[in-house]
Amino acid sequence: MNFPGSIHEIQSILDAIPYPVVVRGRDHRVKVANKATCDFLQRSRNALVTLSDYEIFPAEQINAVHESDDLVFSSGKGDEREVEVIDGRGSVRHVIIRKQLATLEGLQYIVAAVSDVTAHREAEAQNRNLILYDTLTGLPNSVLSNQHFEQMHASKPGECALLLTDLDQFGLVNDTHGFPAGDDLLIQFGQRLLSVVRAGDTVSRLGGDCFSVLLMNMNTDTSIEDVCERILRAAAQPFEVPGGRVQISASIGLAIPQDELVPPIETKRRAGVALNQAKADGRDRWCAYSEEFDRTFRHRQSTEADLREALLTETGIEVYYQPIATVSSGEVIGFEALARWRHPTRGMVMPDDFIQVAEASGLIVLLGERILRQACQDAASWSPPLRLSVNVSPLQFVQGDLVNMIAGALADSGLDPQLLELEMTEGVLIDDASGTLLLLNRIRALGVSIVLDDFGTGFSSLSYLQHFPFSKVKLDKSFITDMLENCDVTSIVKAVLALSKSLNIAVVAEGVETSAQLELLRELGCDQAQGYLISRPLPINGLSEILGGIG
Q1: Is domain 137-289 annotated with CATH 1.10.150.40?
Q2: Most exposed among 29, 387, 464, 496, judged by the fewest C-beta atoms under 10 Å?
Protein backbone atom coordinates (compact mmCIF):
# COMPACT_ATOMS: atom_id res chain seq x y z
CA MET A 1 0.00 0.00 0.00
CA ASN A 2 1.50 3.33 -1.08
CA PHE A 3 0.24 6.71 0.05
CA PRO A 4 0.96 9.87 -1.93
CA GLY A 5 2.41 12.80 -0.07
CA SER A 6 4.02 12.89 3.36
CA ILE A 7 2.86 11.08 6.46
CA HIS A 8 1.63 14.34 7.89
CA GLU A 9 -0.41 15.17 4.80
CA ILE A 10 -2.68 12.13 5.31
CA GLN A 11 -3.84 13.38 8.72
CA SER A 12 -6.89 15.17 7.29
CA ILE A 13 -7.80 12.08 5.25
CA LEU A 14 -7.71 9.81 8.30
CA ASP A 15 -9.71 12.29 10.37
CA ALA A 16 -12.59 11.85 7.96
CA ILE A 17 -12.76 8.13 8.81
CA PRO A 18 -15.34 7.52 11.60
CA TYR A 19 -13.50 4.63 13.28
CA PRO A 20 -10.04 4.63 14.93
CA VAL A 21 -7.05 4.48 12.53
CA VAL A 22 -3.41 4.82 13.56
CA VAL A 23 -0.12 4.75 11.67
CA ARG A 24 2.77 3.12 13.51
CA GLY A 25 6.48 2.83 12.75
CA ARG A 26 8.98 0.01 13.24
CA ASP A 27 9.78 1.50 16.66
CA HIS A 28 6.18 0.67 17.67
CA ARG A 29 5.35 4.31 18.21
CA VAL A 30 2.28 6.10 16.88
CA LYS A 31 3.08 8.46 14.01
CA VAL A 32 -0.46 9.51 13.09
CA ALA A 33 -3.74 9.06 14.97
CA ASN A 34 -7.06 10.21 13.61
CA LYS A 35 -9.73 12.00 15.60
CA ALA A 36 -11.75 8.79 16.19
CA THR A 37 -8.69 7.24 17.87
CA CYS A 38 -8.34 10.25 20.17
CA ASP A 39 -12.00 9.98 21.12
CA PHE A 40 -11.77 6.22 21.71
CA LEU A 41 -8.70 6.48 23.96
CA GLN A 42 -9.64 9.85 25.47
CA ARG A 43 -6.16 11.14 24.62
CA SER A 44 -4.98 14.18 22.76
CA ARG A 45 -3.33 13.71 19.39
CA ASN A 46 -0.10 15.11 20.80
CA ALA A 47 -0.11 12.60 23.66
CA LEU A 48 -0.60 9.69 21.30
CA VAL A 49 2.35 10.61 19.06
CA THR A 50 4.73 11.46 21.90
CA LEU A 51 3.99 8.76 24.46
CA SER A 52 5.22 5.18 24.19
CA ASP A 53 2.91 2.17 24.05
CA TYR A 54 3.68 1.41 27.67
CA GLU A 55 2.28 4.80 28.61
CA ILE A 56 -0.91 4.28 26.59
CA PHE A 57 -1.88 0.61 26.90
CA PRO A 58 -1.94 -1.84 29.83
CA ALA A 59 1.39 -3.66 30.12
CA GLU A 60 -0.15 -7.12 29.56
CA GLN A 61 -1.32 -6.08 26.07
CA ILE A 62 1.91 -4.56 24.79
CA ASN A 63 3.75 -7.75 23.86
CA ALA A 64 0.83 -9.01 21.77
CA VAL A 65 0.60 -5.66 19.95
CA HIS A 66 4.33 -5.64 19.20
CA GLU A 67 4.27 -9.28 18.09
CA SER A 68 1.52 -8.47 15.61
CA ASP A 69 3.42 -5.42 14.33
CA ASP A 70 6.61 -7.41 13.84
CA LEU A 71 4.75 -10.12 11.93
CA VAL A 72 3.35 -7.60 9.47
CA PHE A 73 6.77 -5.92 8.96
CA SER A 74 8.54 -9.24 8.46
CA SER A 75 6.01 -10.93 6.19
CA GLY A 76 4.60 -7.97 4.36
CA LYS A 77 1.15 -9.51 4.85
CA GLY A 78 -1.76 -8.03 6.69
CA ASP A 79 -2.90 -9.20 10.13
CA GLU A 80 -6.34 -9.30 11.67
CA ARG A 81 -7.06 -10.04 15.30
CA GLU A 82 -9.94 -9.68 17.73
CA VAL A 83 -8.80 -8.53 21.14
CA GLU A 84 -10.11 -6.89 24.28
CA VAL A 85 -8.80 -3.40 24.99
CA ILE A 86 -9.47 -0.76 27.61
CA ASP A 87 -10.89 2.46 26.19
CA GLY A 88 -10.25 5.89 27.61
CA ARG A 89 -13.19 5.57 30.01
CA GLY A 90 -11.81 2.38 31.51
CA SER A 91 -14.37 0.14 29.82
CA VAL A 92 -13.46 -3.20 28.27
CA ARG A 93 -14.13 -3.15 24.52
CA HIS A 94 -14.11 -5.96 22.00
CA VAL A 95 -12.32 -4.72 18.88
CA ILE A 96 -11.05 -6.16 15.61
CA ILE A 97 -7.69 -4.66 14.59
CA ARG A 98 -6.78 -4.96 10.91
CA LYS A 99 -3.20 -4.09 9.99
CA GLN A 100 -1.66 -3.47 6.59
CA LEU A 101 1.89 -2.56 5.57
CA ALA A 102 2.10 0.87 3.88
CA THR A 103 4.93 2.87 2.28
CA LEU A 104 5.05 6.58 3.00
CA GLU A 105 7.95 8.79 1.85
CA GLY A 106 9.98 5.66 1.11
CA LEU A 107 9.55 4.25 4.63
CA GLN A 108 7.39 1.39 5.81
CA TYR A 109 4.63 1.87 8.36
CA ILE A 110 1.72 -0.09 9.69
CA VAL A 111 -1.76 1.29 9.18
CA ALA A 112 -4.08 -0.18 11.80
CA ALA A 113 -7.87 0.20 11.56
CA VAL A 114 -9.93 -0.59 14.65
CA SER A 115 -13.54 -1.82 14.50
CA ASP A 116 -15.49 -1.78 17.80
CA VAL A 117 -17.60 -4.97 17.91
CA THR A 118 -18.53 -4.76 21.58
CA ALA A 119 -22.26 -4.35 20.96
CA HIS A 120 -22.22 -7.24 18.50
CA ARG A 121 -20.43 -9.56 20.93
CA GLU A 122 -22.77 -8.57 23.76
CA ALA A 123 -25.75 -9.35 21.53
CA GLU A 124 -24.19 -12.69 20.66
CA ALA A 125 -23.66 -13.45 24.35
CA GLN A 126 -27.26 -12.49 25.09
CA ASN A 127 -28.52 -14.68 22.27
CA ARG A 128 -26.33 -17.51 23.51
CA ASN A 129 -27.86 -17.15 26.96
CA LEU A 130 -31.34 -17.22 25.45
CA ILE A 131 -30.46 -20.37 23.51
CA LEU A 132 -28.70 -22.21 26.33
CA TYR A 133 -30.19 -20.88 29.59
CA ASP A 134 -33.68 -20.74 31.05
CA THR A 135 -34.84 -17.14 31.28
CA LEU A 136 -36.85 -17.68 34.48
CA THR A 137 -34.47 -19.64 36.70
CA GLY A 138 -31.12 -18.87 35.03
CA LEU A 139 -30.39 -22.61 34.95
CA PRO A 140 -29.20 -24.42 31.81
CA ASN A 141 -32.10 -25.30 29.55
CA SER A 142 -32.74 -28.50 27.62
CA VAL A 143 -30.31 -27.57 24.83
CA LEU A 144 -27.33 -27.09 27.16
CA SER A 145 -28.43 -30.04 29.31
CA ASN A 146 -28.38 -32.29 26.25
CA GLN A 147 -24.91 -31.03 25.30
CA HIS A 148 -23.53 -31.77 28.77
CA PHE A 149 -25.13 -35.21 28.82
CA GLU A 150 -23.83 -36.14 25.37
CA GLN A 151 -20.31 -35.06 26.34
CA MET A 152 -20.42 -37.04 29.57
CA HIS A 153 -22.00 -40.04 27.91
CA ALA A 154 -19.31 -40.08 25.23
CA SER A 155 -16.44 -40.00 27.70
CA LYS A 156 -17.73 -41.87 30.78
CA PRO A 157 -21.07 -43.58 30.05
CA GLY A 158 -20.98 -45.75 33.15
CA GLU A 159 -20.18 -42.92 35.55
CA CYS A 160 -23.21 -40.68 35.09
CA ALA A 161 -26.92 -40.85 35.82
CA LEU A 162 -29.89 -38.78 34.66
CA LEU A 163 -32.71 -37.73 36.94
CA LEU A 164 -35.93 -36.16 35.68
CA THR A 165 -38.04 -34.51 38.35
CA ASP A 166 -41.17 -32.42 38.33
CA LEU A 167 -43.51 -30.99 40.91
CA ASP A 168 -46.67 -32.94 41.66
CA GLN A 169 -49.90 -31.13 40.75
CA PHE A 170 -48.00 -27.91 40.12
CA GLY A 171 -50.91 -26.57 38.07
CA LEU A 172 -52.92 -26.14 41.26
CA VAL A 173 -50.37 -23.57 42.46
CA ASN A 174 -51.00 -21.42 39.40
CA ASP A 175 -54.76 -21.93 39.69
CA THR A 176 -54.85 -21.07 43.39
CA HIS A 177 -52.15 -18.41 43.83
CA GLY A 178 -51.58 -17.12 40.28
CA PHE A 179 -48.77 -17.47 37.76
CA PRO A 180 -46.33 -15.10 39.55
CA ALA A 181 -46.49 -17.41 42.57
CA GLY A 182 -45.88 -20.42 40.33
CA ASP A 183 -42.87 -18.74 38.73
CA ASP A 184 -41.46 -17.84 42.13
CA LEU A 185 -41.86 -21.43 43.30
CA LEU A 186 -40.00 -22.72 40.24
CA ILE A 187 -37.11 -20.35 40.94
CA GLN A 188 -36.95 -21.50 44.56
CA PHE A 189 -37.12 -25.17 43.59
CA GLY A 190 -34.27 -24.69 41.12
CA GLN A 191 -32.14 -23.19 43.87
CA ARG A 192 -33.02 -26.03 46.23
CA LEU A 193 -31.91 -28.54 43.61
CA LEU A 194 -28.58 -26.75 43.30
CA SER A 195 -28.16 -26.86 47.06
CA VAL A 196 -28.66 -30.64 47.40
CA VAL A 197 -26.52 -31.89 44.49
CA ARG A 198 -22.74 -31.82 44.24
CA ALA A 199 -20.80 -28.99 42.64
CA GLY A 200 -19.95 -31.05 39.56
CA ASP A 201 -23.54 -32.07 38.83
CA THR A 202 -25.71 -30.16 36.35
CA VAL A 203 -29.20 -28.93 37.22
CA SER A 204 -31.34 -27.82 34.28
CA ARG A 205 -34.90 -26.67 33.74
CA LEU A 206 -36.37 -28.47 30.75
CA GLY A 207 -39.63 -26.54 30.66
CA GLY A 208 -42.75 -26.08 32.75
CA ASP A 209 -42.14 -27.65 36.15
CA CYS A 210 -39.78 -30.33 34.80
CA PHE A 211 -36.12 -30.26 35.82
CA SER A 212 -33.20 -32.58 35.12
CA VAL A 213 -30.18 -33.42 37.23
CA LEU A 214 -27.12 -34.90 35.51
CA LEU A 215 -25.11 -36.71 38.15
CA MET A 216 -21.42 -36.94 37.28
CA ASN A 217 -18.77 -39.38 38.50
CA MET A 218 -21.17 -41.72 40.25
CA ASN A 219 -18.31 -44.03 41.23
CA THR A 220 -17.83 -41.86 44.33
CA ASP A 221 -19.20 -42.54 47.80
CA THR A 222 -22.35 -40.51 47.11
CA SER A 223 -25.23 -42.84 46.20
CA ILE A 224 -27.95 -42.03 43.73
CA GLU A 225 -30.52 -43.02 46.34
CA ASP A 226 -29.18 -40.35 48.70
CA VAL A 227 -29.46 -37.68 46.01
CA CYS A 228 -33.04 -38.68 45.21
CA GLU A 229 -34.07 -38.62 48.85
CA ARG A 230 -32.48 -35.19 49.33
CA ILE A 231 -34.45 -33.84 46.36
CA LEU A 232 -37.71 -35.25 47.72
CA ARG A 233 -37.06 -33.69 51.13
CA ALA A 234 -36.15 -30.36 49.54
CA ALA A 235 -39.38 -30.30 47.54
CA ALA A 236 -41.47 -31.21 50.59
CA GLN A 237 -40.37 -28.12 52.55
CA PRO A 238 -42.98 -25.30 52.37
CA PHE A 239 -42.48 -22.59 49.74
CA GLU A 240 -43.19 -18.98 50.60
CA VAL A 241 -44.71 -17.41 47.49
CA PRO A 242 -46.74 -14.27 46.75
CA GLY A 243 -50.16 -14.96 48.16
CA GLY A 244 -49.22 -17.46 50.84
CA ARG A 245 -47.39 -20.66 51.70
CA VAL A 246 -47.41 -23.66 49.37
CA GLN A 247 -46.83 -27.28 50.31
CA ILE A 248 -46.00 -29.53 47.39
CA SER A 249 -44.07 -32.68 46.51
CA ALA A 250 -41.90 -33.96 43.68
CA SER A 251 -41.59 -37.15 41.66
CA ILE A 252 -38.31 -38.42 40.21
CA GLY A 253 -37.42 -40.75 37.37
CA LEU A 254 -33.90 -42.23 37.20
CA ALA A 255 -32.00 -43.75 34.29
CA ILE A 256 -28.38 -44.90 34.21
CA PRO A 257 -26.61 -45.46 30.86
CA GLN A 258 -25.27 -49.00 31.07
CA ASP A 259 -22.92 -48.70 28.10
CA GLU A 260 -22.22 -46.67 25.00
CA LEU A 261 -24.81 -48.68 23.03
CA VAL A 262 -27.65 -46.80 24.75
CA PRO A 263 -27.71 -43.31 23.17
CA PRO A 264 -28.39 -40.23 25.31
CA ILE A 265 -31.84 -39.69 23.81
CA GLU A 266 -32.84 -43.22 24.85
CA THR A 267 -31.50 -42.66 28.36
CA LYS A 268 -33.61 -39.51 28.62
CA ARG A 269 -36.67 -41.42 27.41
CA ARG A 270 -36.07 -44.09 30.04
CA ALA A 271 -35.84 -41.45 32.76
CA GLY A 272 -39.19 -40.13 31.53
CA VAL A 273 -40.67 -43.64 31.75
CA ALA A 274 -39.43 -43.96 35.33
CA LEU A 275 -40.86 -40.52 36.17
CA ASN A 276 -44.27 -41.54 34.85
CA GLN A 277 -44.10 -44.69 36.95
CA ALA A 278 -43.28 -42.67 40.06
CA LYS A 279 -46.39 -40.58 39.45
CA ALA A 280 -48.53 -43.64 38.75
CA ASP A 281 -47.32 -45.17 42.04
CA GLY A 282 -48.65 -42.22 44.01
CA ARG A 283 -46.15 -39.35 43.52
CA ASP A 284 -43.70 -37.99 46.12
CA ARG A 285 -41.23 -40.79 45.32
CA TRP A 286 -38.49 -41.82 42.93
CA CYS A 287 -38.35 -44.76 40.56
CA ALA A 288 -35.48 -46.25 38.59
CA TYR A 289 -36.10 -47.41 35.05
CA SER A 290 -36.90 -51.04 34.43
CA GLU A 291 -38.10 -52.96 31.39
CA GLU A 292 -41.29 -53.83 33.26
CA PHE A 293 -42.00 -50.15 33.81
CA ASP A 294 -41.32 -49.58 30.12
CA ARG A 295 -43.87 -52.18 29.09
CA THR A 296 -46.41 -50.66 31.47
CA PHE A 297 -45.65 -47.17 30.15
CA ARG A 298 -46.05 -48.24 26.52
CA HIS A 299 -49.35 -49.89 27.41
CA ARG A 300 -50.57 -46.71 29.10
CA GLN A 301 -49.48 -44.62 26.12
CA SER A 302 -51.26 -46.95 23.72
CA THR A 303 -54.35 -46.98 25.91
CA GLU A 304 -54.40 -43.19 26.12
CA ALA A 305 -54.06 -42.79 22.35
CA ASP A 306 -56.83 -45.30 21.65
CA LEU A 307 -59.10 -43.81 24.31
CA ARG A 308 -58.59 -40.32 22.93
CA GLU A 309 -59.56 -41.54 19.46
CA ALA A 310 -62.61 -43.34 20.86
CA LEU A 311 -63.79 -40.17 22.59
CA LEU A 312 -63.15 -37.94 19.58
CA THR A 313 -64.87 -40.31 17.16
CA GLU A 314 -67.61 -41.20 19.68
CA THR A 315 -67.12 -44.91 19.11
CA GLY A 316 -66.70 -47.73 21.59
CA ILE A 317 -67.63 -45.90 24.82
CA GLU A 318 -70.68 -47.53 26.39
CA VAL A 319 -72.64 -47.06 29.60
CA TYR A 320 -73.49 -50.05 31.77
CA TYR A 321 -75.80 -49.87 34.77
CA GLN A 322 -75.52 -51.61 38.14
CA PRO A 323 -78.72 -51.78 40.20
CA ILE A 324 -79.04 -50.26 43.67
CA ALA A 325 -81.71 -51.91 45.84
CA THR A 326 -83.22 -51.37 49.26
CA VAL A 327 -81.83 -53.75 51.87
CA SER A 328 -85.18 -54.25 53.59
CA SER A 329 -87.27 -55.27 50.58
CA GLY A 330 -84.84 -55.86 47.74
CA GLU A 331 -86.65 -53.37 45.52
CA VAL A 332 -84.44 -51.86 42.85
CA ILE A 333 -84.65 -48.09 43.26
CA GLY A 334 -81.96 -46.93 40.89
CA PHE A 335 -78.80 -47.64 38.92
CA GLU A 336 -75.20 -46.47 38.96
CA ALA A 337 -73.85 -45.57 35.52
CA LEU A 338 -70.46 -47.18 34.81
CA ALA A 339 -68.17 -46.61 31.84
CA ARG A 340 -67.25 -49.49 29.56
CA TRP A 341 -65.02 -49.38 26.50
CA ARG A 342 -65.46 -51.76 23.60
CA HIS A 343 -62.00 -51.68 22.00
CA PRO A 344 -61.74 -52.72 18.34
CA THR A 345 -58.95 -55.26 19.03
CA ARG A 346 -58.88 -55.75 22.81
CA GLY A 347 -62.58 -56.36 23.20
CA MET A 348 -64.42 -55.07 26.27
CA VAL A 349 -62.02 -53.04 28.41
CA MET A 350 -62.96 -52.74 32.08
CA PRO A 351 -62.68 -49.47 34.05
CA ASP A 352 -59.67 -50.65 36.06
CA ASP A 353 -57.73 -50.74 32.77
CA PHE A 354 -58.53 -47.25 31.50
CA ILE A 355 -60.00 -44.94 34.15
CA GLN A 356 -56.61 -44.28 35.76
CA VAL A 357 -55.17 -43.47 32.33
CA ALA A 358 -58.09 -41.15 31.68
CA GLU A 359 -57.48 -39.39 35.01
CA ALA A 360 -53.74 -38.96 34.41
CA SER A 361 -54.20 -37.66 30.86
CA GLY A 362 -57.13 -35.35 31.59
CA LEU A 363 -59.40 -37.33 29.26
CA ILE A 364 -61.60 -38.09 32.28
CA VAL A 365 -63.26 -34.68 31.82
CA LEU A 366 -64.50 -35.53 28.33
CA LEU A 367 -65.25 -39.13 29.34
CA GLY A 368 -67.21 -38.00 32.39
CA GLU A 369 -69.33 -35.63 30.34
CA ARG A 370 -69.97 -38.32 27.73
CA ILE A 371 -71.14 -40.80 30.40
CA LEU A 372 -73.33 -38.23 32.16
CA ARG A 373 -75.09 -37.14 28.98
CA GLN A 374 -75.71 -40.69 27.75
CA ALA A 375 -76.86 -41.87 31.18
CA CYS A 376 -79.31 -38.96 31.51
CA GLN A 377 -80.72 -39.76 28.06
CA ASP A 378 -81.19 -43.42 29.04
CA ALA A 379 -82.64 -42.70 32.49
CA ALA A 380 -85.19 -40.28 31.05
CA SER A 381 -86.81 -43.25 29.26
CA TRP A 382 -87.09 -45.55 32.31
CA SER A 383 -90.60 -46.46 33.37
CA PRO A 384 -91.24 -46.21 36.21
CA PRO A 385 -88.73 -43.41 36.84
CA LEU A 386 -85.72 -44.60 38.87
CA ARG A 387 -82.77 -42.81 40.37
CA LEU A 388 -79.53 -42.45 38.41
CA SER A 389 -76.07 -42.23 40.04
CA VAL A 390 -73.14 -40.90 37.98
CA ASN A 391 -69.53 -40.60 39.14
CA VAL A 392 -67.77 -37.24 38.93
CA SER A 393 -63.96 -37.14 38.84
CA PRO A 394 -61.99 -34.71 41.03
CA LEU A 395 -60.54 -33.31 37.80
CA GLN A 396 -64.01 -32.29 36.67
CA PHE A 397 -64.24 -30.06 39.73
CA VAL A 398 -61.19 -28.02 38.71
CA GLN A 399 -61.47 -28.12 34.92
CA GLY A 400 -64.36 -26.91 32.86
CA ASP A 401 -67.74 -25.67 34.04
CA LEU A 402 -69.22 -28.60 35.91
CA VAL A 403 -72.45 -26.86 36.94
CA ASN A 404 -73.36 -25.77 33.42
CA MET A 405 -72.40 -29.18 32.05
CA ILE A 406 -74.80 -30.89 34.48
CA ALA A 407 -77.54 -28.37 33.73
CA GLY A 408 -77.05 -28.92 30.00
CA ALA A 409 -77.25 -32.71 30.30
CA LEU A 410 -80.48 -32.44 32.29
CA ALA A 411 -82.01 -29.96 29.87
CA ASP A 412 -81.09 -31.96 26.76
CA SER A 413 -82.37 -35.24 28.17
CA GLY A 414 -85.45 -33.98 29.99
CA LEU A 415 -84.50 -36.00 33.07
CA ASP A 416 -86.01 -34.80 36.34
CA PRO A 417 -83.08 -33.31 38.37
CA GLN A 418 -84.55 -34.93 41.51
CA LEU A 419 -83.64 -38.34 40.04
CA LEU A 420 -79.96 -37.56 39.45
CA GLU A 421 -77.26 -38.32 42.02
CA LEU A 422 -73.63 -37.29 41.52
CA GLU A 423 -71.04 -39.45 43.26
CA MET A 424 -67.77 -37.86 44.37
CA THR A 425 -64.81 -39.11 46.40
CA GLU A 426 -63.29 -37.43 49.42
CA GLY A 427 -60.22 -36.40 47.40
CA VAL A 428 -62.21 -33.46 46.09
CA LEU A 429 -62.81 -32.28 49.66
CA ILE A 430 -59.20 -32.56 50.74
CA ASP A 431 -57.80 -30.40 47.93
CA ASP A 432 -60.11 -27.38 48.37
CA ALA A 433 -62.85 -27.89 50.93
CA SER A 434 -64.22 -24.32 50.91
CA GLY A 435 -64.28 -24.05 47.11
CA THR A 436 -65.84 -27.49 46.80
CA LEU A 437 -68.60 -26.59 49.26
CA LEU A 438 -69.58 -23.59 47.14
CA LEU A 439 -69.64 -25.73 44.01
CA LEU A 440 -71.67 -28.49 45.68
CA ASN A 441 -74.25 -25.97 46.83
CA ARG A 442 -74.59 -24.69 43.25
CA ILE A 443 -75.15 -28.27 42.09
CA ARG A 444 -77.69 -28.86 44.86
CA ALA A 445 -79.50 -25.73 43.68
CA LEU A 446 -80.18 -27.53 40.40
CA GLY A 447 -82.15 -30.14 42.37
CA VAL A 448 -79.40 -32.77 42.05
CA SER A 449 -78.34 -34.93 45.03
CA ILE A 450 -74.72 -35.37 46.14
CA VAL A 451 -73.33 -38.76 47.20
CA LEU A 452 -70.03 -39.38 49.02
CA ASP A 453 -68.49 -42.42 47.34
CA ASP A 454 -65.99 -44.96 48.74
CA PHE A 455 -66.46 -43.71 52.29
CA GLY A 456 -63.93 -45.25 54.66
CA THR A 457 -60.90 -45.12 52.37
CA GLY A 458 -57.98 -42.72 52.46
CA PHE A 459 -58.45 -39.83 54.88
CA SER A 460 -62.17 -40.26 55.44
CA SER A 461 -63.60 -38.11 58.18
CA LEU A 462 -67.03 -38.33 59.77
CA SER A 463 -67.00 -34.51 59.82
CA TYR A 464 -67.60 -34.58 56.06
CA LEU A 465 -71.11 -35.84 56.74
CA GLN A 466 -71.83 -32.86 58.95
CA HIS A 467 -70.31 -30.06 56.89
CA PHE A 468 -71.14 -31.04 53.29
CA PRO A 469 -74.59 -31.37 51.65
CA PHE A 470 -74.59 -35.13 51.14
CA SER A 471 -77.87 -36.95 50.72
CA LYS A 472 -76.24 -40.37 50.64
CA VAL A 473 -73.01 -42.13 51.65
CA LYS A 474 -71.62 -45.24 49.96
CA LEU A 475 -69.67 -47.49 52.31
CA ASP A 476 -66.54 -48.82 50.63
CA LYS A 477 -66.73 -52.51 49.74
CA SER A 478 -63.73 -53.29 51.95
CA PHE A 479 -65.98 -52.79 55.01
CA ILE A 480 -68.60 -55.13 53.61
CA THR A 481 -66.00 -57.79 52.82
CA ASP A 482 -64.46 -57.68 56.31
CA MET A 483 -67.40 -57.08 58.63
CA LEU A 484 -68.39 -60.76 58.97
CA GLU A 485 -64.91 -61.66 60.19
CA ASN A 486 -63.95 -58.53 62.11
CA CYS A 487 -65.98 -57.10 64.98
CA ASP A 488 -64.14 -53.79 64.83
CA VAL A 489 -65.22 -53.30 61.23
CA THR A 490 -68.80 -54.10 62.19
CA SER A 491 -68.60 -51.45 64.92
CA ILE A 492 -67.41 -48.88 62.40
CA VAL A 493 -70.30 -49.71 60.08
CA LYS A 494 -72.72 -49.32 63.01
CA ALA A 495 -71.22 -45.92 63.87
CA VAL A 496 -71.51 -44.67 60.30
CA LEU A 497 -75.10 -45.89 60.07
CA ALA A 498 -76.03 -44.23 63.36
CA LEU A 499 -74.48 -40.90 62.48
CA SER A 500 -75.94 -40.93 58.98
CA LYS A 501 -79.40 -41.68 60.33
CA SER A 502 -79.15 -38.77 62.76
CA LEU A 503 -78.22 -36.50 59.86
CA ASN A 504 -80.95 -37.92 57.60
CA ILE A 505 -78.34 -39.30 55.18
CA ALA A 506 -78.98 -42.64 53.47
CA VAL A 507 -76.23 -45.29 53.41
CA VAL A 508 -75.46 -47.62 50.49
CA ALA A 509 -73.30 -50.70 51.07
CA GLU A 510 -71.06 -51.35 48.07
CA GLY A 511 -69.68 -54.72 47.00
CA VAL A 512 -72.39 -56.94 48.51
CA GLU A 513 -71.66 -60.42 47.18
CA THR A 514 -73.18 -62.91 49.67
CA SER A 515 -76.52 -63.46 51.35
CA ALA A 516 -74.78 -63.40 54.74
CA GLN A 517 -73.48 -59.92 54.09
CA LEU A 518 -76.91 -58.74 53.02
CA GLU A 519 -78.55 -60.26 56.10
CA LEU A 520 -76.11 -58.55 58.46
CA LEU A 521 -76.74 -55.24 56.72
CA ARG A 522 -80.48 -55.76 57.29
CA GLU A 523 -79.85 -56.36 60.98
CA LEU A 524 -77.71 -53.22 61.22
CA GLY A 525 -80.35 -51.09 59.52
CA CYS A 526 -78.46 -50.25 56.33
CA ASP A 527 -80.66 -48.49 53.77
CA GLN A 528 -79.45 -49.66 50.37
CA ALA A 529 -77.08 -52.19 48.80
CA GLN A 530 -75.18 -52.61 45.57
CA GLY A 531 -73.04 -55.53 44.36
CA TYR A 532 -72.84 -58.77 42.43
CA LEU A 533 -75.43 -60.44 44.73
CA ILE A 534 -77.97 -58.03 43.32
CA SER A 535 -76.62 -57.85 39.79
CA ARG A 536 -73.52 -57.26 37.77
CA PRO A 537 -73.45 -54.07 35.66
CA LEU A 538 -75.63 -54.52 32.56
CA PRO A 539 -76.08 -52.71 29.24
CA ILE A 540 -79.18 -50.61 28.81
CA ASN A 541 -81.03 -53.38 26.98
CA GLY A 542 -80.52 -55.82 29.88
CA LEU A 543 -82.07 -53.81 32.69
CA SER A 544 -85.61 -55.14 32.34
CA GLU A 545 -84.47 -58.57 33.56
CA ILE A 546 -83.62 -57.43 37.10
CA LEU A 547 -86.42 -54.99 37.92
CA GLY A 548 -88.36 -57.63 39.84
CA GLY A 549 -86.33 -57.36 43.09
CA ILE A 550 -83.79 -59.49 44.91
CA GLY A 551 -85.97 -61.26 47.54
Answers
A1: no
A2: 29
